[in-house]
Amino acid sequence: EAGVVQSPRYKIIEKKQPVAFWCNPISGHNTLYWYLQNLGQGPELLIRYENEEAVDDSQLPKDRFSAERLKGVDSTLKIQPAELGDSAVYLCASSINYGNTGELFFGEGSRLTVL
Amino acid sequence: TQLLEQSPQFLSIQEGENLTVYCNSSSVFSSLQWYRQEPGEGPVLLVTVVTGGEVKKLKRLTFQFGDARKDSSLHITAAQPGDTGLYLCAGGRAAGNKLTFGGGTRVLVKP
């Protein structure tokens, strides 16, 4: 079975440019997460979806970040405009259902470098 | 501010030595997960502990959840180079609440 798929793996852009990341979760997983991970640090939650509904987006900087999961399957995370401080790895994860004992399955991440 | 503090931040040891990584909080967690992340990859779940005082063993890895469910430790016996990676603890506080990750401990096992 395929794991969580993310693209692109790497992206280099200049500041003020837009960027988008795509995630396809494991089939049948209705909970999808976007995390931000700075180098050598733990992941920080940006947004969590239950099916197509964003149920926790309290940590998402809504002035420049947006996300969607229109059909409750794959998801897109967008940054516009990007700032230097946005350089990080953006991780997507999915789980069968939400619960704090459930296993999160992560993708390989999308590494963003903003110049 | 991290709700979960991991220590040490970095650990470098020789193959065959033992190591312990700690995860501490002032908050009570209903469950605690440990993940390992290798460079260029996403974190992978190692274990979930849910009962205060619980001890779980996974080959050379031993995980313990504190009696008060505020802290946890990961002990590796006879470390191998394949144990190299970033070890992350993640706590959940109640059904429907989000999983909070610690800052991670980077472990380097030299051959």
Describe the structure.
The complex is a heterodimer of chains A (115) and B (111). In chain A, 0% of the residues lie in helices and 48% in strands. Chain A is built from no helices and eleven strands. Chain A is an all-beta fold. Chain B is an all-beta fold and 111 residues long. In chain B, strand 7 (61-65) and strand 8 form a beta hairpin. The mean pLDDT of chain B is 92.
How do the strands and helices of this protein lay out in sequence?
The complex is a heterodimer of chains A (115) and B (111).
Chain A: E1 5-7, E2 10-13, E3 19-24, E4 31-37, E5 44-50, E6 53-56, E7 65-68, E8 75-79, E9 88-95, E10 105-106, E11 110-114
Parallel strand pairs in A: 2-11
Antiparallel strand pairs in A: 1-3, 3-8, 4-5, 4-9, 5-6, 7-8, 9-10, 9-11
Chain B: E1 5-7, E2 10-14, E3 19-24, E4 31-37, E5 44-49, E6 55-58, E7 61-65, E8 71-76, E9 85-92, E10 100-101, E11 105-110
Parallel strand pairs in B: 2-11
Antiparallel strand pairs in B: 1-3, 3-8, 4-5, 4-9, 6-7, 7-8, 9-10, 9-11
Keywords, separated by commas or semicolons:
heterodimer; A: 115 residues; mainly beta; 7-stranded mixed beta sheet; 4-stranded antiparallel beta sheet; B: 111 residues; 6-stranded mixed beta sheet; 5-stranded antiparallel beta sheet; 52% strand; globular
Describe the structure concisely.
The complex is a heterodimer of chains A (115) and B (111). Chain A is mainly β.
Shape of chain B: globular
Most extensive interface:
A-B, 22 and 34 residues
Number of helices of chain B: 0
Helix content of chain A: under 10%
Q: Enumerate how many helices of chain A there are, as a single number.
A: 0
**Uncertain runs of chain B with pLDDT below 50, 5 residues or more?**
none
